[in-house]
Amino acid sequence: MKKANRVTAPALAPGQVEYEFGIPIPGVILPKESWAHTAIKRLPEAGPIDWSAVFGRDAPLCLDIGCGNGRFTLASGVSRPDWNHVAIDSLPTVIRYATRRANQRGLANTRFLAIDGWRLLHDFSSDQAWSEIHIYHPQPYADPRMESRRMLTPDFLYLIHRRLKDRGRLFVQTDRAAYWNYMNTVLEQVFEWEPISSEWPDEPEFRSRREIQARKQGLKIYRGIATRRSDWSDSQLLETIAQLPQPRFKV
């Protein structure tokens, strides 16, 4: 039996812009000799990772947890060349897409690797390592049997607080009202919390593939910025964390 021919998208030429759902993907395709190498394929045996050595320079560090196809990191890497960017996702398939796109755009200030946020922050990061952490549309897990897998638990928020620099910022976004209500409850207890009532003030307008889909469906997007507090001790932080509810809610 003859196999069906596999249909593949045509390769983009240098100078072209790539689109997704009719929305441009940040950056322009460069000639192949200008491509970067942005994949981290092997983790060290023990952490923390020396990101200055990885990038070959000292620069503010931005982490994108659950990066998907890399839309935010690509945009930030293009617009903020003086920052180092690390983007992670637990799904190797989407990391391959994101890595290819960053390579084609010559974004030497970005790195992509397949790992979950807890493992990277717990096992491979030092305290006060990150200037920014971004989490866009964390998986809500609508099935009640899966709610224990929700990302933004009190323990994870404690870990984020430890790993952010003084006055470092956590950016969050979701289209699920129940998840947003939970974020509002817990983030203001741990950070200086600022809900954002409008769109993000900087480009790009869409920070993730999920945001594009949600807005096309007419869903409301909830956004906020949590800034690391430095006015209390670790024991005070732990006491606060211990009193916070777990992310149990109906989606």
Strand-helix topology:
Blueprint: E1 19-20, E2 23-24, H1 51-55, E3 61-65, H2 71-79, E4 84-89, H3 92-104, E5 110-114, H4 117-123, E6 130-136, H5 154-163, E7 164-174, H6 177-190, E8 192-196, H7 209-216, E9 222-227, H8 234-242
Parallel strand pairs: 3-4, 3-6, 4-5, 6-7
Antiparallel strand pairs: 1-2, 7-9, 8-9
Helix pairs in contact: 5-8
Q: Class by helix and strand content? A: alpha/beta
CATH superfamily: Vaccinia Virus protein VP39
Our Rg estimate from Cα atoms comes to 19 Å
Biggest sheet overview: 7 strands, mixed
Order of helices and strands: EEHEHEHEHEHEHEHEH
Q: Count the helices. How many?
A: 8
CATH topology-level name: Rossmann fold
β-strand number:
9
Low-confidence stretches: none
State the helical fraction: 25-40%
CATH architecture: 3-Layer(aba) Sandwich
What is the CATH first-level class name?
A: Alpha Beta
Provide the descriptors you would attach to this structure in a database record.
alpha/beta; 7-stranded mixed beta sheet; two-stranded antiparallel sheet; 9 strands; 30% helix; globular
Structural account:
With 251 residues, the chain is α/β, with parallel strands linked by helices. It has one domain (61-242): Vaccinia Virus protein VP39 (Rossmann fold), CATH 3.40.50.150. It is built from 8 helices and 9 strands. The chain has helices spanning 51-55, 71-79, 92-104, 117-123, 154-163, 177-190, 209-216, 234-242, and strands at residues 19-20, 23-24, 61-65, 84-89, 110-114, 130-136, 164-174, 192-196, 222-227. A 7-stranded mixed beta sheet has the order 5-4-3-6-7-9-8, sandwiched between helices. A two-stranded antiparallel ribbon has the order 1-2. Strand 4, helix 3 (92-104) and strand 5 form a beta-alpha-beta unit. Helix 5 (154-163) packs antiparallel against helix 8 (234-242). It is globular. The model has no long low-confidence stretch (mean pLDDT 91).
